Amino acid sequence: MVLTKMPILNKIPRELLFWGAADQARVLKPIVESLGSSVVALVDDTPGLVSPFRNVEIYEGISGFNRWRDGRNVGQYGFVVAIGNPYGDVRCRLHDFLLENGLQAVSFADSTANIDESVIVGEGAQVMRGAIVNVDARLGKQCIINTRALVEHDCILEDGVEIGPGAVLCGRVHVGKNSWVAANATVRPRVTIGSNTIIGAGAVVVSDIPDDVVAVGVPARILRHNGE
User: In the annotation, is 153 catalytic?
Assistant: First the structure.
């Protein structure tokens, strides 16, 4: 995991490029604006997508990004990958691409989120309204903590993890790369969830879950392997 200390949280450039121009972008825009930044460009891989924001131009894919980049001092811009799960791997790949192209990675949290000062936050973290991240938790690169989610003490979230709205991770939970704990799921203390795994909405996870599966229910059971 790429980890940085808390002081960088919410210290973001005045101008941001969003990669992703759908629902996640609409949720994030008011948060970054409340921190004194503005969205000046959008990139999305969906052909023909219309910009959701007045006066913010949208560019298509890498070729569109290259057109936006040409002639600009890109080092003054921050970037946000506004793509939700199950695309944590995509977020991380785009994160690395944009860093290589000279933009600044930013991490931010809504003003109503409660993040303990001991938390270690990875680059590109997004923490939504009313979320709580408790003592000595660790968030990897491009983690998303959604509205009113609770990440308890000493949890470890690897790169590309998303915690859904209202989900609860009790103490010392470990979530592997690019996994998604969906809305209102609960994970008991000291449980490990593997990489590239989805925990369904409302599930209650009482024992370890392996890599590359979808688990649902109370208690959570493996429904299928990813890709089936």
Answer: yes
Whether this prediction's pTM lies above 0.85 is answered by yes
From the candidates 95, 153, 174, 225, which is the catalytic residue?
153
- Tally DSSP H helices, then E strands, for the chain: 3, 25
Q: Which two tokens stand for residue 208?
A: 């370890």
Using pLDDT thresholds of 50, 70 and 90, give the confidence band for residue 4: very low
Percent pLDDT > 90 in the chain is: 93
- pLDDT tens figures, 55-85: 999 999 999 999 999 999 999 999 999 999 8
Q: What is the CA radius of gyration of the chain?
A: 17
DSSP string, 171-228: TT-EE-TT-EE-TT-EE-TT-EE-TT-EEPTT-EE-S-B-SSEEEETTTTEEEEETT-
Contact 210, 191 (CB under 8 A): no
Q: In the numeric block, which tokens belong to residue 164?
A: 């859904």
145 dihedral zone (left: phi>0; alpha: psi -120 to 50; beta): beta
Token pair of 52, please? 């959701």
φ and ψ of 218, to 5 deg: -130, 105
Q: Which domains, and CATH codes, for the chain? A: 3-108 (3.40.50.20), 114-225 (2.160.10.10)
Phi, then psi, of 40 in degrees rounded to 5: -110, -15
Cα 56 to chain centroid distance, Å, stands at: 22
Q: Which two tokens stand for residue 37?
A: 């930044």
Bridge partners of 131? none
Amino acid occupying residue 191:
V
